[in-house]
Write a structure and sequence with these properties.
Elements: E1 2-4, E2 8-10, E3 22-24, E4 28-31, E5 44-47, E6 53-54, E7 67-70, E8 94-97, H1 102-106, E9 117-119, E10 129-130, E11 135-138, E12 144-145, E13 149-150, E14 157-160, E15 168-171, E16 174-177, E17 181-189, E18 198-207, E19 216-220, E20 223-227, H2 230-234, E21 236-241, E22 244-247, E23 250-252, E24 259-266, E25 272-278
Parallel strand pairs: 1-3, 2-4, 4-6, 5-7, 7-8, 8-9, 11-18
Antiparallel strand pairs: 10-13, 12-16, 14-17, 15-16, 17-18, 19-20, 20-23, 21-22, 21-24, 24-25
Length: about 280
């Protein structure tokens, strides 16, 4: 990808035949003459709403272009230039414009040469967020890595409910547990010309067992763990599910069914805590 996030004027650049994608900054105002001439590898390009002028031959021979996305609701009026889009197949390249602007673009020279002019997002496919569900954690747990995926396979971003920093903090896709409480976590995919935006929120519930006078085993979802004060829990380094040992003081019981016997012990086996559940 060639990054052209520079305010002002985008001028003629070299090695354009090898250019396959481009990122135009939102502050860009002018695309100069011959700026993308011969960029036959480009299949799609999006023009920010800040662009108010495009030079002659700017997109000449962009023969691979399949979509041109223009975010300015008011078409640029071409008066002294006539070859801006020469070489683009305007029968197959789709021109996407803001909602309510289709007829305006059909009324102006050069723009109206595109046979298929559509509103941005008009044919976007709905996408879903997967691998993202309510989370139950415990004070003192290790950071949690969020692995939500979008059906479009586009990247997912995360946000955390404001004012809940006393419960958990979020950096990228990693949640760090801070204290007891409940907070909403949202996974979002902003969409593009092919996919509509989507966001899903789940609840993170953080529990504290510091009030327990003795350690115990608790089950939340498919995780069984030793709970109690941090110092007491740290002593339990062996965990058993139906007799099978797991390292540490917790175990994943996703695959276990029926009556499940859970046991945790200290390293020397002197202290033992047990629990039986039906799943």
């Amino acid at each position: 990808m060639r990054n052209l996030k520079k305010k002002g004027i985008l001028s003629y650049t070299q090695t354009l035949p090898t250019l396959t994608s481009v990122d135009l900054g939102k502050g860009l105002e002018t695309i100069g003459t011959y700026a993308f001439s011969g960029a036959s590898g480009l299949t799609s390009i999006e023009l920010p709403a800040t662009i108010t002028a495009i030079g002659d031959y700017a997109f000449q021979n962009c023969t691979g272009l399949q979509s041109l996305i223009v975010n300015n609701p008011e078409p640029i009026i071409f008066t002294s230039v006539t070859h801006v889009f020469d070489g683009i197949d305007k029968n197959t390249c789709i021109l996407y414009v803001p909602q309510g602007s289709v007829n305006d673009y059909k009324d102006f020279d050069l723009w109206k040469d595109f046979v298929n002019i559509r509103e941005i997002g008009s044919d976007a496919v709905e996408q879903t967020i997967e691998n993202f569900a309510d989370i139950t954690a415990q004070v003192g747990d290790d950071p949690i890595t969020l692995n939500a995926t979008a059906s479009s396979e586009l990247p997912v971003t995360y946000t955390i409910e404001e004012g809940k920093g006393s419960v958990a903090t979020l950096e990228g896709n990693v949640l760090t547990i801070v204290g007891e409480g409940i907070v909403q976590i949202t996974a979002s995919q902003e969409g593009n010309n092919d996919y509509s935006p989507v966001s899903v929120s789940v609840t993170l519930t953080v529990l504290s067992y510091e009030w327990l006078e003795e350690v115990a085993i608790a089950v939340t979802g498919n995780t069984a763990k030793v709970v109690g004060t941090a110092d007491a829990v740290a002593k339990f380094t062996k965990f058993y599910v139906n007799g099978a040992e797991s390292a540490g003081n917790s175990a994943d019981i996703t695959e276990a069914t029926g009556e499940i016997s859970l046991k945790a012990t200290t390293a020397d086996g002197a202290e033992v805590v047990k629990l039986k559940i039906q799943k």
